[in-house]
């Protein structure tokens, strides 16, 4: 199989105007029988996104070169999430080291990622964020991976995001019939990708054919001319395109051959080694991002990452620290739902807080006792709220029936219960009990003075009609 690679990135008019560097990065790499094309678009608002884009592109290239066979098998036959887990974990590890070197937040290195790796007539592709990956087959261009902008067109997903593993889409299959791949960042896609019908322009076929018929260097110069003179003029964003052309791809017999390879490699130690490495790196990733969310006050996401870490049994770090953090998270969530009068949820979170607290402290510790007290408090307050609501509802029924004395007694009782526990348990009902009590008092006073209430008037009217 003959493979050619070419790529080029051009700075956009917006960055030229503001005297900023190009934040796109395009990359081609080949070694032995492995080939890869990558484009990354650094986040415009981030200071070191160009550095991040380069690190991401080279990190993914090295990873696929090292583990292509195992990752292909996982994506095709086992679980695609394993591939996403390893790629995101490896990239985040490299970016963490760079962020420490630059003394900046890891988010400052954010970028999108689009890649296609090819080896032995098979390809493995991945995409997170905007931009497009296309394939040329039978002289026609097809979209392999569409842009992912989330809810709004000007917002996208990055490899450093909290949901990167879920948002990284991976694709794999044999290269039968594939003549080439075209990868582009969103700046270039504005001219080549039609958003209305979600299709790519025919120029993609011409680009692949040009690469086939010319040297890689000639194609790079052609891309430079195309981007500078045509595409950049239609956008203010940076533009990148990476091309990969394929010739003499082996036939369908490769499939049965590879199927046998799969069953062999599946049982071999190499796959188990990769799975262990994925597990370890994913554990580190979950721990680090969980700690980051916790420090930034994002308790829901911190809880999610630590729970997944515990559920998978892949704790590589300080277990006691994780339990302490979870104890604190669940306790704070319990307080939040308690303040918002959702006592069932509050009690559930207090119970979870108690569970993790007991793992690191004895039953008699002050914190365990405090959480137990909060749990019982939830139960007591919920009961008292229910009792007060019951008294008020009963009083309103009696009020409608004209039993003002009975209604008055129910409302006064509700007021006494609420006053008794208001200070200690912050019990407060939204309904105006004082107004209901006053209404009953007015009716009772009217009766005591010999006045007739509205119900008596209605009865008199009905009696007169009958007599007439």
Q: What would you note in describing this structure?
A:
The model is unreliable at 252-256, 361-368 and 452-468 (pLDDT under 50). Helix 2 packs antiparallel against helix 3 (80-102) and helix 9 (269-295) runs antiparallel to helix 10 (299-312). It is elongated and about 110 Å long. The protein is α+β, with helices and mostly antiparallel strands and 468 residues long. The chain folds into 3 domains: 2-250, Phosphatase 2c, domain 1, CATH 3.60.40; 268-316; 385-467. It has helices at residues 13-17, 49-78, 80-102, 164-167, 186-192, 203-213, 216-231, 253-267, 269-295, 299-312, 319-339, 343-360, 366-401, 404-425, 433-448, 454-467; strands spanning 2-10, 24-31, 34-41, 113-119, 122-128, 132-137, 140-145, 169-174, 178-184, 193-194, 199-200, 239-247. The relative contact order is 0.09. It has a 5-stranded antiparallel beta sheet with strand order 1-12-9-6-7. A 5-stranded antiparallel beta sheet has the order 2-3-4-5-8. It contains 16 helices and 12 strands. The longest helix has 36 residues, at 366-401. Helices cover 60% and strands 16% of the residues.
Distance between the termini: 109 Å
CATH homology superfamily of the largest domain:
PPM-type phosphatase domain
> Stretches where pLDDT falls below 50 for ≥5 residues?
252-256, 361-368, 452-468
The helix/strand class is alpha+beta
Number of domains: 3
The fraction of residues assigned to DSSP E strands is: 15-25%
CATH architecture of the largest domain: 4-Layer Sandwich
């Amino acid at each position: 199989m003959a493979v050619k690679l070419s790529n080029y990135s051009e700075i956009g008019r917006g960055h030229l105007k503001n005297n900023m560097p190009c934040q796109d990065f395009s990359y081609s790499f080949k070694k032995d029988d492995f080939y890869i094309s990558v484009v990354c678009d650094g986040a415009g608002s981030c200071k070191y996104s160009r550095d991040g884009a380069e690190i991401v592109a080279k990190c993914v290239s090295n990873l696929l070169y090292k583990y292509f066979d195992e990752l292909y098998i996982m994506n095709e036959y086992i679980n695609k999430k394993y591939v996403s887990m390893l790629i995101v974990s490896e990239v985040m590890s490299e970016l963490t080291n760079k962020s420490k070197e630059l003394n900046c937040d890891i988010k400052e290195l954010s970028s999108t990622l689009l890649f296609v790796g090819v080896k032995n007539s098979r390809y493995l592709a991945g995409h997170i964020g905007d931009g497009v990956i296309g394939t040329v087959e039978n002289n026609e261009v097809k979209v392999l991976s569409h842009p992912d902008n989330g809810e709004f067109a000007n917002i996208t997903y990055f490899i450093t995001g909290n949901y990167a593993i879920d948002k990284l889409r991976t694709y794999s299959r044999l290269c039968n019939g594939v003549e080439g791949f075209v990868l582009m960042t969103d700046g270039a896609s504005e001219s080549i990708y039609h958003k209305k019908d979600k299709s790519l322009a025919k120029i993609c076929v011409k680009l692949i054919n040009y690469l086939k018929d010319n040297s890689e260097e000639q194609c790079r110069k052609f891309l430079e001319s195309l981007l500078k003179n045509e595409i950049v003029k239609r956008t203010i964003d940076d533009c990148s395109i990476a091309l990969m052309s394929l010739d003499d791809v082996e036939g369908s017999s490769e499939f049965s051959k590879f199927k046998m390879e799969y069953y062999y490699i599946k049982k071999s130690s190499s796959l188990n080694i990769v799975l262990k490495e994925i597990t370890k790196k994913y554990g580190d990733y979950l721990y680090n991002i969980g700690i980051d969310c916790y420090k930034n006050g994002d308790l829901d996401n911190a809880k999610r990452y630590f729970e997944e870490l515990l559920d998978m049994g892949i704790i590589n770090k300080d277990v006691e620290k994780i339990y302490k953090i979870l104890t604190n998270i669940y306790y704070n969530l319990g307080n939040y739902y308690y303040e918002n009068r959702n006592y069932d949820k509050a009690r559930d979170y207090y119970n979870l807080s108690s569970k993790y607290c007991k793992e690191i402290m004895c039953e008699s510790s002050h914190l365990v006792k405090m959480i137990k007290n909060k749990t019982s408090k939830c139960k007591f307050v919920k009961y008292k709220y229910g009792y007060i609501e019951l008294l008020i509802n009963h009083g309103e029924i009696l009020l409608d029936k004209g039993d003002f004395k009975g209604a008055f007694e129910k409302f006064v009782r509700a007021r006494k219960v609420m006053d008794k526990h208001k200070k200690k348990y912050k019990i407060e009902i939204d309904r105006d009990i004082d107004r209901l009590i006053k209404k009953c008092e007015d009716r009772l006073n009217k009766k005591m003075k010999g006045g007739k209430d509205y119900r008596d008037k209605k009865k008199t009217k009905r009696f007169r009609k009958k007599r007439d």
